[in-house]
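Dear colleagues,

I hope this message finds you well. In preparation for our joint manuscript, I am sending the site-specific DNA-methyltransferase (adenine-specific) (Marseilla massiliensis) sequence together with its predicted structure, so that both groups work from identical material. I would be grateful if you could confirm receipt.
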Amino acid sequence: MMETFNISNRRYLGNKYKLLGWIRSVVDGNCEGVRSFFDVFSGTGSVASAFTDKRLVVCDMMYSNYLAALCWFSPEPVDRERLARLLDYYNAYDASNEDNYMSRNFSDTYFNTATCRKIGFIRDDVETRYANREINRRERASIITSLIYAMDRISHTCGHYDSFIRDGKYDGALELRMPQNDAPMNPDNRIYCADSNTIADREETDVAYLDPPYNSRQYCDTYHLLENVAQWRQPEVFGVARKMDRSTMKSRYCKSAEAAEALEELVMKLRSRYILLSYNNNGKKLQCRSNAKISDEEIIRIMSLRGEVRVFNMSHRGFDAGKSELNKDNQERLFLCSVNR
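The corresponding C-alpha cells are as follows:
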C-alpha cells in the first residue's frame, strides 16, 4: 500500500499546526455564526485545515503554497487510482542518466545529481500531462505538492533553503506519497495566488484570519528552491545558494518602514465580521532582523479602526531551524476584532 502524507508533514517557518486547537477554540468561543473562513496568508494551509467544515477562502502569494492549497482544499475531484499510478510511476522511474534544468543547476547542492535528475523529470512530465489534459488542475497540484513534501524530507539543509550542508553525504531517496486529500470540500471554496492586500475585498466572509510575516526574513528567500520547482519557469539561478530573481515576490510585511502601513491597508479593505490576527512577538533576539516589525500598540490601533479588539496569549516556540535565540517572553498572540465599523 502506498505511503500517505498530511498537511502537517512539512517544516515551515511560522507553521501554526501545533496551535490549531487553540486558534479554533478562540474562534468557536468568541465568533458567532461562522460559516466561512478566509485564511489570508495561508502558508502551508495548516490553519485553514482546522476549518474545512466552513466555506474556505485561501490566499498566498507564493505559487508553491497556492498549489498546496489546491491540493488540500479545492473542491475539484481527484481520480485517486490515476494519481496512485502516476506516483508509483515516478517513484520507480530511473532518471539517473537524463540531465535537465534541475541537474544542471542544483546537482550536489541541496540534493545529489540523481535526485535532481528525477525532480526535473517529474516536473517536465507533469507539465506535459497537464497540457495534454491527462490530469486535471487539482491532480497536477497534488503531484507537485507530493514532490515538494518529498524534497523537504531529504533536503540537505537545516529546514530551509538559504544554504545547504556541505558534507557531501546525502541520505534518503526521493519518495512521492499520496496526499490525504480525499475528504469532501465545500464546492464554494476559493483559492488565490496573489498579494493578499490586492484581493482582500474580493470575498465576503465571517472570519478573516491574518498571519503575516513577523520579521525581515522573506519567505521567497527561505523557500526559493521549492518555489522554483513549483513555478517551473526554469530561470537563471545565481550564487552559492542557487537563488533565482525574487524581486517581485518580496513582502511589505518584512520591512519596518512598510509593515504597519500594509497591515492598516489590509484591515480596512477586509469584508469580514471578525478579523483575527496571529502575531508572534518573537521574544528578544540577538539578531535584529528576527524582531517583530509591528508593535502591539500599533496592531491594536490599526484593528481598533474596525471595532473592539481583544487579545489572547499563549507561550509558544515556533520552528526556527535551531539557530535563533528565544527568551522566556516569546508568545503567540491572537488579536480578535469584532467588526462594527
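For the figure legend, we might mention the following. The radius of gyration is 20 Å. The mean pLDDT is 91.

With kind regards,
E.M.
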